[in-house]
Amino acid sequence: MQHARSTTSVTTSFAATVRKAFADVLLWGFFLAGLAASTAAGAAFDGTAKNAVSGAGAVVALLAGSRLAKKPRIKAFLGRPGTLWFLFLFNGATAVALYFTMDGVKGILAAAMMGLVSVGAAGGLVAGRRARAQAARETAAGETAAGETAAGETAAVDAPWA
Questions:
Q1: For 34-38, which contacts have Cβ atoms below 8 Å and span 24 or more sequence positions?
Q2: Which member of 25, 137, 140, 157 has the lowest number of beta carbons within 10 Å of its beta carbon?
Q3: Global confidence as pTM
Q4: What is the pLDDT of residues 49-64, one digit of tens each?
């Protein structure tokens, strides 16, 4: 009887793993297809059709990319300070370059979008710094409280600001 249960759980976990892998491949496929459609629409279409395919591809890539960014490994990578600094500096420099090299509304819109990504990365840097500072304060407070109880005296006298 126990053997049947363990086989069922193994089969269920295998099926779940296959489903997850299939969903990941499909999501990455939509993301890459959306990028390809938004960038290469001019090679196959003209006029209104080109604009429609390019816009639809951008929307598909944006939706799939936002779903991909919620995955734990990618979210952890995007939350690292080094990654955020790269996104902030690279996208900020790209926004300035786009503003000066492209004419008209397209240049302004492209610069604004890249600037938004840069500002978002800067917000992540500030939020991460605050979270790390808060965690350091909590850790220091916990260590101070542990030192007070262990030594039986206040640790404030030993503090550098005392």
A1: 34/58, 34/59, 34/60, 34/61, 34/62, 34/63, 34/64, 34/65, 35/61, 37/61
A2: 157
A3: 0.60
A4: 888 988 899 899 999 9
